[in-house]
């Protein structure tokens, strides 16, 4: 929605309701109906399609499917993916301290350069 469209909508609303002075409480309690954006429509469509894909997969294979990261997989595939995930190593405190020191040094350099 461009700024000119927004401005046109604002002007239409003001003309429709008149521009009577309102107190703050009325402004706080009033709700503005906003049309859905293209992005929100796309997000809703993707969510619906993922739900339908899960149902279709279950109907086609007659087996239960679960969704992992947006994909429909069989429980055996899900288990295999979990097995393949390598465990992350625990954070090294010395490395974290080193990184924080680098950040401090960078901030000091940036501050001194200004």
Note the beta-strand portion.
5-15%
Alpha-carbon distance between the termini? 39 Å
Order of helices and strands: HHHEEHH
Give average pLDDT, whole number: 78
Low-pLDDT stretches: none
Q: How much helix is in the residues? A: 55-70%
Question: What are the SSEs and their pairings?
Answer:
Layout: H1 3-17, H2 24-29, H3 38-61, E1 66-68, E2 71-73, H4 75-84, H5 93-113
Antiparallel strand pairs: 1-2
Keywords:
single chain; 114 residues; mainly alpha; two-stranded antiparallel sheet; 5 helices; 2 strands
What does this structure look like?
This protein has 114 residues and is mostly helical. The radius of gyration is 27 Å and the shape is flat. The protein contains 5 helices and 2 strands. The model has no long low-confidence stretch (mean pLDDT 78). The chain starts with a helix and ends with a helix. The chain has helices spanning 3-17, 24-29, 38-61, 75-84, 93-113; strands at residues 66-68, 71-73. A hairpin with a 2-residue loop joins strand 1 (66-68) and strand 2.
Short synopsis of the structure:
The chain has 114 residues and is mainly α.
């Amino acid at each position: 929605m461009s700024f000119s469209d927004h401005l046109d909508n604002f002007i239409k609303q003001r003309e429709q309701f008149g521009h009577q002075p309102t107190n703050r409480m009325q402004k706080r309690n009033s709700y503005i109906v906003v049309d859905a954006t293209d992005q929100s429509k796309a997000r809703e469509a993707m969510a619906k399609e993922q739900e339908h894909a899960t149902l279709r997969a279950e109907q086609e294979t007659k087996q239960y499917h679960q969704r992992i990261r947006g994909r429909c997989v069989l429980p055996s595939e899900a288990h295999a993916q979990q097995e393949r995930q390598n465990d992350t190593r625990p954070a090294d405190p010395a490395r974290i301290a080193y990184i924080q020191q680098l950040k401090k040094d960078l901030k000091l350099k940036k501050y001194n350069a200004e």
